[in-house]
Amino acid sequence: MPWASSNPHSHRFTYVKGQFCRNPDNEPRTWCYTTDPEVRYEFCNVTACETTNSTCYENSRERPYSGTINITVTGYPCQRWDSQSPNRHTFTDVSEENYCRTPDGAVVPWCYSTNPTKRWEECQIVPCEKSATVYGCYEGWEDYGGNCYKIEKNMSTWREADSACKKMDSELTSILTGEEQQFILGIMSADLCFNTRKLSDCKKWADQGDCVKDPLFMIQYCRQSCDHEVFCNTDCAMDAHENSAQCGRWQTSGECARNPLWMLSHCAYSCQVCSNGNIN
Predict the structure, then answer these.
(1) DSSP 96
(2) Residue ranges of the domains in the chain?
(3) C-alpha distances in Å from residue 203, one per residue of 199, 207, 220
(4) Class in CATH terms, 49-129
């Protein structure tokens, strides 16, 4: 039954989201309350995490992490264990490249970082009980590579964003590969109508007429605040016109500045709203 429900079984875990098998009281296995009034709860048939080459770690010192993740929680590449640069250490017998490990018996995998000012950090690895490969993602989150992603389109500092993620029991991620970037852009392109500058700034610029006076700027940063369909329906990573070469010629001749709204509707890419296909 849904965790937020108390029918047919009253319980104290109503804060748990969804209707998935969970382990809010640290039982040996995941479980859930059933919809049968005669059977209060049962353990779930969930495959245990594999620690070798996995994207999660067992919350146990008896089963240390042995996968190949080598990035710290704030995005630094790990230093090789057989290297003393830039950070000297005594764990030279750990010979597995620069993979996250627990040579000191810790539970959470860690490594020395390649940043001379950041000696070591825990790694970008979630506990197996939170891994998407075991449980799937909450509604509104997208699965990629065994992890769950959610795009928040509010302007904030790194510290503010990190704090917001932790409140959702998650981590602020760093994009590490081209494939991951394309996945993120795919999520973003499904909803083109958002601002990437502060809402108050976008509203001020829209009120003073910048959606018409400077649409090239506004479509990059304040789409949601401009009351014109071109701002929310234009995919800036491509030219909608059937002849992209012609769009390039119009751009060269200055049409993006002379006739911006039409050009944004038909030749957004050539007007350099985007750079190398990435959303700015």
Answers:
(1) S
(2) 1-46, 49-129, 136-176, 199-267
(3) 6, 6, 14
(4) mainly beta
Prediction pTM value:
0.33
pLDDT digits (tens, 9 = 90+) for 105-143: 888 899 999 998 889 999 888 777 654 444 456 767 777
Number of H helices, E strands in the chain: 10, 8
Strands 41-43 and 110-112, bridge-based pairing: unpaired
- One-letter amino acid for residue 164 of the chain: A
Closest to 271 (Cα-Cα) out of 128, 23, 255, 56: 255
Sign of CA dihedral 165, 169, 172, 175: negative
Is the peptide bond preceding residue 37 cis, with omega within 30 degrees of 0? no
- Is the CATH number of domain 1-46 3.30.9.10? no
Q: Are 1-46 and 49-129 equal in CATH topology?
A: yes
In degrees rounded to 5, what are phi and psi of residue 244? Answer: -65, -30
